[in-house]
Each structure stands twice: as structure tokens, then as C-alpha cells.
């Protein structure tokens, strides 16, 4: 029964029926209260533009995916300090940033919005090492880490000339 409900929630999300996904997932969590189901419910809340609801069910969870979803919720509510703490807990400094490149990218955005440009550059430079999660580099990562443009950009010479002028961070290497 749980597998069937999870499948229906994913189907609703794929069909952009976010309110239906929230309803089904709330029933799922009432019947089967596992943390993975709570993560799915938080995802449904985020798709339904309810980051505050996702925040409340994820607060205090320790699994990496839960921490990433909590950070995303905090970021959407402009709670940047809490978002940073979710990705990099102060009491556990050696903990890995969750969700690979996407976690580093989110942390880079948090650093940039809080005025820490050098730390943001480090995170954006760390994200391309895990770029298998992305089809093409995002404009933010490309601008701050000086990596190659997406393959659809035809005039690479013009890109390189403008890119050198606009790039304020230099890639380490």
C-alpha cells in the first residue's frame, strides 16, 4: 500500500497536480510516518509554494536529503542563517554538504546573498566538480567559476571576451 501511495504522489508531481500530491502525501505520512515519506511531503509542500510547512516538518531531521530540503525551505523564506546551518551544522564541522553539486550551489547562493563573495566563489567552484547532476552549467556557476559556456552558445569567442571582463572570481587550479 505504501509503495502504491508513493507512486501516486510522484505521478501527481509529474503532472503538476501539486495540491493533490500534498493531499495524498499527507495521508501517506499519517499512515506510514517514515522520514523518507516526510521528505516527500516536504517536496510536495515546496512544489505547492508552502516552504513554511516543509520547514516545520523537517526541523531537527538529520538525514542529508532532509537537511537539503530544510535549507531550501529556509532559503525560500529568506532565513539565510538557518539555511546555512542546515547545510553546514555548527556542532558538526566535518559533515559533508548534502546533495552534492546542488547543495554546494545553494550554499554559494547563501554566501553571495550574505555578502561573503570569496566563500561563494569557493562553493560555486566546488559545484562543477559534481556537474554530472546538471545538464549544462548554470549562468551563476559559469560566471563565478570561469568554466566553459553551455554547448548551445554559438559564438564562443565573443563569450570568452565578455566573460573575462565580467568574471570577478578566478578559478583555483
UniProtKB/TrEMBL annotation:
<dbReference type="Pfam" id="PF12895">
    <property type="entry name" value="ANAPC3"/>
</dbReference>
<keyword id="KW-0802">TPR repeat</keyword>
<dbReference type="GO" id="GO:0051301">
    <property type="term" value="P:cell division"/>
</dbReference>
<dbReference type="GO" id="GO:0016567">
    <property type="term" value="P:protein ubiquitination"/>
</dbReference>
<protein>
    <submittedName>
        <fullName>Uncharacterized protein</fullName>
    </submittedName>
</protein>
<dbReference type="GO" id="GO:0005737">
    <property type="term" value="C:cytoplasm"/>
</dbReference>
<dbReference type="GO" id="GO:0005680">
    <property type="term" value="C:anaphase-promoting complex"/>
</dbReference>
<dbReference type="GO" id="GO:0031145">
    <property type="term" value="P:anaphase-promoting complex-dependent catabolic process"/>
</dbReference>
<dbReference type="GO" id="GO:0007091">
    <property type="term" value="P:metaphase/anaphase transition of mitotic cell cycle"/>
</dbReference>
Amino acid at each position: 500500500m505504501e509503495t502504491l501511495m508513493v507512486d501516486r504522489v510522484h505521478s501527481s508531481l509529474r503532472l503538476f497536480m501539486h495540491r493533490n500530491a500534498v493531499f495524498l502525501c499527507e495521508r501517506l505520512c499519517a499512515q506510514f510516518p517514515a522520514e523518507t515519506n516526510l521528505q516527500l511531503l516536504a517536496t510536495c509542500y515546496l512544489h505547492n509554494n508552502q516552504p513554511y510547512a516543509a520547514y516545520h516538518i523537517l526541523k531537527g531531521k538529520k538525514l542529508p536529503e532532509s537537511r537539503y530540503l530544510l535549507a531550501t525551505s529556509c532559503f525560500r523564506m529568506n532565513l539565510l542563517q538557518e539555511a546555512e546551518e542546515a547545510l553546514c551544522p555548527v556542532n558538526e564541522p566535518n559533515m559533508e554538504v548534502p546533495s552534492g553539486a546542488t547543495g554546494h550551489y545553494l550554499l554559494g547562493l547563501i554566501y553571495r546573498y550574505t555578502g561573503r563573495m570569496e566563500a561563494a566563489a569557493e562553493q560555486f567552484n566546488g559545484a562543477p566538480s559534481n556537474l554530472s547532476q546538471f545538464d549544462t552549467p548554470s549562468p551563476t556557476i559559469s560566471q563565478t567559476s570561469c568554466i566553459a559556456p553551455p554547448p548551445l552558445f554559438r559564438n564562443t569567442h565573443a563569450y570568452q571576451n565578455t566573460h573575462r571582463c565580467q568574471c570577478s572570481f578566478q578559478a583555483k587550479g
